[in-house]
Amino acid sequence: MKSNLSSIAATVVLMVLTTTTTAQCTLTNATSCVCATAGQTDCDLLPDMTISWNGLSTVSGGPSEYAQNDGSNPGRLRISGSTPNIGKGNLEVRGVSGGIRAFICGQDTIYASSGQQSFTCPGGISPKQILYQRIYHKNGNTMSYQDVKTGTMTYHPNHAHYHVDDWTTMTLRIQDPSEPLPTKWPIVATGAKIGFCLMDYYTCWTASANGHCRTSQEWQQGTVLNTQGQFPNRGMGNGYNCSADYQGISTGRTDLYGEWLEGMWINLLPNLCNGNYWIVAEVDPTNVFQEENEANNWTAMPFTLALQRAANSGGSAFISANKRPIVGNGRTVTLTAAPGYSYLWNTGATTRSITVAQAGSYSCTVNAPCGTSLQTGTIVVTAMEAPAAPTATGAVVLGPATADLHATGDDPQWYTAASGGTAIGSGNDLTTPVLSETTTYWVSDRNTTAGNTWTVGKTYNASHGSNYNGRQWMYFDAYEPFTIKSVRVVASGVGNRHFIVVDNVGNLIAEKQIELLPGDQIVQLNFNIPKGIQHKISAYDSGAQSSGTQLVFQDMHYSTTGVSYPYAIGTVGSITGSTLGGSVYLFFYDWEVATETVVQESARVPVVAEVVTGVMLDLKAFLDGPYDANTGKMHDSLRVNGLIPLTEPYAAMGFPQVGTGGESIPASRLTVIGDDAVVDWVRVELRSASTPSTIIATQSGVITRAGQVLSASGTPMRIGVPAGNYHVVLRHRNHLGVMTASPIELGVTTTTIDLRTSITSTWGTDAQRASNGVMRLWSGEVVRDGVVSYTGGNNDRDRILQVIGGTVPTNVVEGYLPSDVNLDGSVKYTGGANDRDPILTNIGATVPTGSRFEQLP
Questions:
Q1: Integer Cα distance of 802 and 829 in angstroms
Q2: In terms of domains, do 649 and 547 share one?
Q3: DSSP state for residue 716 in the 8-state scheme
């Protein structure tokens, strides 16, 4: 019937195009085409698909209800759907792109150049052909287009044409007065045609479709669009029909599927009661096609059922939960009662859903078609608290390297962000990937109430039964919410099965249509089951046929022997029987049933993996020049007199430099007094373990009165070399340097070397001055040549005399000078605290011609 009408519709469109003034707006000429936004001349000409409440309520006199025992339409509510395009452009879909057709077979996409009529998927499953939406674009007078990959369509050999998949859905719902959008009202029953063949069935201005096209799709609203002038781009009409290559609905046209066609009904399931409902219809419900307006793809009309179970004939209601009913630490649970006209919870709430944050027992009385006070029974919500945040320990590593982090707690979870994201590890310890820079991780602790998984129901035994087709059900109770993850079925032939769960008054709980191959297989359902009694599950046969071919059926194994009800569903429910009696078990073997694992997580705390670029050294020493035996410390006269420079002096003095050098300290560092007061700059060298004369790295720092060598930043030194073994050298600008006798293992954790004690072995002989068990670097190297000498050429005593003037030995010169052997800020040749006597003392005191040599290789 539809194919004949399509020819008439195409003829009407052609007549309009030849008798109106729209020739300047065609699929090839955009001159007089109008954009959706007034004044624009550069725009996509998109469709605007609606579904007509007028068509729903008037075609064939409106929806037709049938009783459960009707001979031809058992338990059906037949409906019609008219889908006008009131947009500025056509909805055009194509099955060919670049001469290639793409087909989906299960998880695979297969490309072919032939039509789908000659293409089949392995095993006989119907292929889905990928569609492309052609979007026309106006740019001034120029019309262009692009093809965009979108939904799918299926070839129906009995119809001999293609259907666009999931084009419309039809549902029966109960109005929720607190929710303005009908598509969010609770669903009672469903029905969906597999797809539509898209075509220009009527123009909006033809009498047959008068009232279908409107400015609003809402019930009894909108201005009628029934003149050609209301569709300025009507010249784009393309006379679409059920072509294998392309289909569509032109602007100003509508497509119509009447209730007399196969599949155009809602399944009214057994036990559904008479009463007031709404039919809600949607076009392109998943928004796979681009449109001007995605918000007007629905319509709704009130409808009163009168041929089903008597109103107020009794039953009970259910409570569903959006998660396992456990609350605490910010976790809430939303409880939802079965569909009804009104609700009264034991908390006093009157909405269908309540969100609870407190443990307790909750129940609801539902005013519904089957009764004014259906009881849900009680659902118990328990509490679970989160643990305290863990205590975390970070790590310092010489990068690039991994880092080992630690946290306390029973079940720590490790993250890369302070919130969100997925845990990257669990347990008290985490080894990071190789890091090249300092990185912060976060860790929490958690308490867990583990979920359960059970395999329940009868186990399949081929000898216990045979294949069965029939509209029958299995009963089961749910003591608390759970999920039916999968079931085992044995199908006799390939085809669509409609798996469905309803409550005891016929309200839809869950459904899924799956095309099965023949044989023994696991079907993934993932049905969330609410708490309630006498739920029903089946592979429902709607009786839909196409040219005598059944579209949805059972044809699966059932058991008539070895059946023993009840079958426990773990601790959360029970399979109690079937509509065929206690000796029959229908279809569904080895149910996999699960409850949710609930986790309560503490706050996250940061854990730092610090990546450093060198080894850590805690070095201690005394300089002989400023050392005060009475205090056991060095004096800080240079600091007191304001003579210490802010930048290290060694680079300018010509000391060998490996690295950047130029370390500096802030002026505030020189205001520190006491043991931490700065005495002077010193220089640290790391030398090769195998060739001690080879300098690997250098760094200047300061030494304090207590003998602590610090970096310019005031911390133990970090020297930029890999972890390993090194000779450690300490040098001063007018003291002889000293080196450890053996290589010392240095790494990212601080290594302490104390040159103040004789326990620390040093290179050579008498490398330091020893006095009362205290070791000190030899002072007196005024001339930097590695030797302290009192007489002879280039001796250190003469340099002191030269600095004070050379002729008057009692002169005193102040400053930051190498000849200031005792580092008191003044150079003196004679008198108390002069700088000459320490030289004589350090070379032996009695033989002025002696020398003291630096013990460095």
A1: 10
A2: no
A3: S
Q: Is there a single domain that holds both residue 522 and residue 457? A: yes
Buried b (16+ CB within 10 A) or exposed e, 625-639: bbbeeeeebbbbbbb
| Domain enclosing residue 335, as ranges | 319-383
Within a domain: 662: yes
DSSP 88: S
Bridge-based pairing of strands 615-620 and 751-754 is parallel
Token representation of residue 711: 């970096």
Can you spell out the DSSP letters for 303-314? EEE-SSBPTT--
The reply to whether 645 and 525 lie within a common domain is no
Note the pLDDT of residue 3: 34
Same domain, 292 and 217: yes
Nearest CA-CA partner of 543 in 581, 496, 584, 579: 496
Tell me the per-residue pLDDT of 315-359, one tens digit each, with 9 for 90 and over.
999 999 999 999 998 899 999 999 999 999 999 999 999 999 999
Handedness of CA 633, 635, 640, 643 (dihedral sign): negative
The total number of structural domains in the chain stands at 5
In a domain, 110, yes or no: yes
Whole-angstrom CA distances from 228 to 9, 33, 60 are 15, 14, 26
- What are the beta bridge partners of residue 137? 44, 144
> What counts of helices (H) and strands (E) characterise the chain?
6, 70
Which of 763, 784, 805 is the last residue before a domain boundary? 784
Last-in-domain residue among 329, 352, 383: 383
563 belongs to a structural domain = yes
Bridge partner list, 591: 456
Same domain, 432 and 494: no
Residues in the chain: 857
Question: Which amino acid belongs to residue 571?
Answer: T
Q: Which residue has the tokens 């939406």?
A: 133
DSSP class of residue 460 equals P
In this structure, are residues 711 and 717 in contact, taking their beta carbons and an 8 Å threshold?
yes
* Single pTM value for the model: 0.69
Question: Is the Cβ–Cβ distance between 407 and 392 less than 8 Å?
Answer: yes
Q: Which residue has the tokens 């001055």?
A: 769
Report how far residue 120's alpha carbon sits from residue 129's, in angstroms, rounded to the nearest whole number: 11
Rounded Cα distance between 146 and 135, Å, is 5
Q: What is the pLDDT of residues 520-568, one digit of tens each?
A: 999 999 999 999 999 999 998 766 555 555 566 778 999 999 999 999 9
The single residue listed with the structure tokens 């519709």 is 9
Residues 639 and 588 in one domain: no
- Report the C-alpha gap between 452 and 467 in whole angstroms: 32
Pairing of strands 446-449, 545-546: unpaired
Beta bridge pairs of residue 305: 275
Residue type for position 755: L
Same domain, 8 and 108: yes
The answer to whether residue 803 sits within a structural domain is no
- Which domain CATH number covers 480? 2.60.120
Separation between Cα atoms, residue 84 and residue 81, nearest integer Å: 10
If residue 834 lies in a helix (H) or strand (E), which one and from where to where?
none
Nearest to 181 by CA among 219, 211, 212, 214: 219
Same domain flag for 549 and 633: no
